[in-house]
Design a protein that fits this description.
CATH class: Alpha Beta
Strand content: 25-35%
CATH topology: Aminopeptidase
CATH architecture: 3-Layer(aba) Sandwich
Strand order of the largest sheet: 1-2-3-4-6-5
Bound molecules: coenzyme A
Number of strands: 6
Order of helices and strands: HHEEEHEHEE
Oligomer: single chain
Structural class: alpha+beta
Largest sheet: 6 strands, mixed
Number of helices: 4
């Protein structure tokens, strides 16, 4: 993902969430070299993306989104494949994410990938009418035999810092 992708990314984001990420969330992630991945269809159209925060020996999935008209075609699975490969390549032991209890579609996707529920963050997400919604914390343990990635891997634009200090989980 680059600045040039953000108009398209924001259009997809706005349709996908009641409380979408703002441009600054994506811009801050790019500035901090968070891991990002784009998904395109056969015509080269951008149809999905993922953003993850790398840390010492883990990665935290912050955003995973597929454009509404392109759902149900395996794009999210492919993005999770890319994330998992990047995490294994850099020697990460664990993938983390948060998901709304109401987001059954995403929960089914993560469960099918082997993520397990390990906790609950009370009132984590904004919800309609000024309410809050809990976040389910999910974890995927990666193979212990993972080997670190070579430095400068272009596909794995990782950095440890969270630019905004606003560690906002998946919605
Ligand atoms: C959740 C989301 C990323 C799934 O993307 P997707 O590209 O449609 O998912 P895939 O096609 O890769 O499907 C993967 C799995 O999702 C689930 N899924 C896909 N389509 C589904 C549908 N119509 N109904 C229920 N579950 C569905 C299934 O478990 C599926 O696995 P299967 O093909 O073995 O049945 C997408 O719906 C999305 O962007 N939603 C809005 C944003 C969001 O909620 N992001 C996740 C935040 S935690």
């Amino acid at each position: 993902m680059s600045e040039a992708d953000l108009d398209t990314v924001l259009a997809i984001e706005a349709c996908a969430y009641a409380f979408p990420w703002r441009r600054s969330h994506f811009a801050d992630s790019l500035a901090a070299s968070h891991w990002t991945a784009l998904r395109r269809d056969a015509d080269g159209q951008l149809v999905g993306y993922a953003v993850a925060l790398p840390a010492a020996d883990e990665m935290h999935l912050l955003n995973l989104t597929v454009a509404r008209p392109h759902e149900g075609r395996g794009h999210a699975r492919a993005l999770l494949d890319a994330l998992q490969a990047a995490a294994v390549a850099r020697g990460a032991a664990t993938l983390w994410l948060e998901v709304r209890p109401s987001n059954e579609r995403a929960r089914r996707l993560y469960a099918a990938r082997g993520f397990e529920q390990v906790g609950l963050r009370r009132d984590y997400y904004p919800a309609p009418h000024g309410r809050r919604e809990d976040a389910i914390v999910m974890r995927l343990r990666l193979a212990a035999a993972a080997s670190p990635a070579p430095p400068g891997d272009a596909a794995d634009r990782a950095a440890a810092a969270d630019p905004a200090g606003d560690r906002r989980g998946l919605d």
